[in-house]
UniProtKB/TrEMBL annotation:
This is MBL fold metallo-hydrolase. It comes from Bdellovibrio bacteriovorus (strain ATCC 15356 / DSM 50701 / NCIMB 9529 / HD100).
Amino acid sequence: MVKVSRILHAGYVFECEGTRVAFDTIFENPFSRNCHAFPTVEFDQEQIRDQKFSAVFISHYHDDHCSLDSLNLLDRSTPIYMYCVFDEIFDWIRQLGFTNVNSLALNTPVKVGEFEITTRRALDADVDSLFQIKAKGFNLLNVVDSWIDYDTLDLLCDQAPWDLVLWPFQTMREIEVIAPRSAVPSDGLIPEEWAEQLKALNPRYVIPSSCQFSMESWSWYNHAFFPVSYAGFTNQIKALLPQTRVVRLNPSCSIVLDHGDIKFAEPLPWVIPVGPQDVDYDYQPDLVPPKTSEVAKHFPALTLEQSRSVFEYCQAGLLEKYRSMPAPEDVYFESPRVWRLSVFDHEGQEQRFFYQVQGAAIQKLTVAVDDIAWTTEVPLYKLHAALQAGETLTSMYMRINDFDFVAELSFAVSEVDVVEDPLIRCLFNGVFGAYQLAQLRRLTGCQRAVL
């Protein structure tokens, strides 16, 4: 028998005859700065410190899967296996004191006690991976956050039959909430590719996995970010695969899988449910998002020095970073474009900066202009967090092109990929592991923590 327990989001513990393997260990709520457990849970950190895992496997470096604050709770002799194409992350984990840190290779099995775990290629192999897990004749697939590469799908189909698939059932409207003016409402359906892949895999059981979080209680994202509900996913899978059973596994909950059936088992004692657990997402396609000036009021004031550092970045650092990067890929920026950056403080007061961008060139304009061709809005607090603490794009409440452009620009602007935004490029292009590095510096007390 194999016991599968949910920690949170994409985190699980697999157990078989004394072997305990944990995946994507997040022991924080909230995690990744503003991801709140959904449903709500708390963690008993003292109990977590007493846990003995045979190994920990981490699928990729995103901060909702790899958090040094969570790893910091574990015994330093715990073997850590991680898939990442950037070598830095392994050195950072070693700097925490872990003595057995390993880089995972695709399609190479790792034997841990009763488990054989094979890392499989995801569609974006530079970032993601998925895990095939075998034990006692069971064949299990942990898809984590991944979109499955079609060569990988062929390989996985050859590995059939599948007893259990942990499937990332939620699509996330990360770009749509950044640029809501141009967003098309979701129909609440899973992508066609997912339906095709699940049908090809044809598992006995499916657990709706990953994306088990909400934003802050006041956040409009809670009704705009996750369009697929648990109920909607279950109904779609029932129609697609009538013989497959969908099993909802809330944080802390456990199942035991045998060759006849599954049964619910004792939950993880160190993951503590708080309040109602069988809650569901409430997507509201007609929701009108609040202005960035209103969103910014939910964040605390910065100190004068912190504010000054952000405004200095807008005056100089941003220009230096922009000029150091290749030109944007979109032809829209081949012509001179006036870009307006609006930064909102905790009182909703706006500070505007105007730039002219063309290709890899940028200059700051000394006066306000009317021929705006691109706009970016961001709370001051969040911009500071991105510069100093590795805040990710998903949680910044950035707003792109919430503006009435002149008629001849409107269509052209709507066709540009939002990630070509100058601020997004300056903050995130070529940046790896800012979140984890900020954690490492804090945890080790070394502001110069490096490779």
